[in-house]
Design brief:
36% of the residues lie in helices and 23% in strands. The chain has 190 residues and is of the alpha/beta class. The chain has a seven-stranded mixed β-sheet, with helices on both faces. The structure holds S-adenosylmethionine. The site of S-adenosylmethionine (SAM) has 23 residues, from helix 2.
């Protein structure tokens, strides 16, 4: 297939937005795949702030980063991404070039612990202030589970109301596949 699949497209968006030395956010660490990807993009002069509410996600991500010698450029935070504004240091405010959200539950973990619309939307609102112009938020929406459908609906309602002078909002989705495949919403700050 020539059309870019969902996760490669998410990575391509991040690659376009992030340079060495940048400040970025992984809003949902999980098993740390995106964290390692972002840590490589920013290099050892940059910084990734990574958030997850579960200790297991912090441990899994730390292991991955240690194995790949990437831990030095990552700050792991065991708090919800809704606390992002309090966590990011003063000198990094207004400089964030990208953020990644992979919604839903920790793969291989407790499927009852999921991202929820109130905190996801709060984090996006805070990021819109914390990012620099042309900074990008990439959100991969998993809506195969019941809570995922609730989160998808709330999130889509919210992103459609973002003032176009504040940010551009893109939806990238295969629309003829079964079983609610994940899709992307990307938000670029003006
Ligand atoms: N990006 C991950 C990877 O590469 O493996 C997958 C992320 S997983 C789909 C979603 C994660 O979001 C779970 O680990 C869950 O604990 C976490 N999560 C749920 N609510 C959260 C919140 N308020 N803030 C940060 N993380 C949260």
């Amino acid at each position: 297939m020539k059309l870019q699949r969902i996760l490669p497209f998410a990575k391509q968006l991040l690659e376009q937005a992030v340079s060495k030395g940048d400040i970025v956010v992984d809003a949902t660490l999980g098993n740390g795949h995106d964290t390692a990807f972002l840590a490589k993009l920013v290099g050892d002069t940059g910084k990734v702030y990574g958030f997850d509410i579960q200790e297991q996600a912090i441990l899994n991500t730390r292991d991955r980063l240690v194995t790949e010698s990437l831990l030095d450029q990552v700050t792991l935070v065991q708090q919800g991404h809704q606390h992002i504004d309090k966590v990011i240091s003063k000198e990094h405010k207004g400089l964030v070039s990208a953020a990644m959200f992979n919604l839903g539950y920790l793969p291989g973990g407790d499927q009852s612990i999921v991202t929820v619309p109130e905190t996801t939307i709060s984090a996006i609102q805070q990021l819109l202030s914390l990012m620099k112009p042309e900074g990008i938020i990439v959100i991969v929406i998993y809506h195969g589970h019941e809570e995922g459908q609730v989160e998808r609906d709330a999130l889509m309602t919210f992103v459609k109301t973002i003032d176009p002078s504040v940010a551009h909002v893109l939806q990238y989705q295969f629309i003829n596949k079964n079983n609610h495949p994940p899709y992307i919403v990307a938000i670029e700050k003006c």
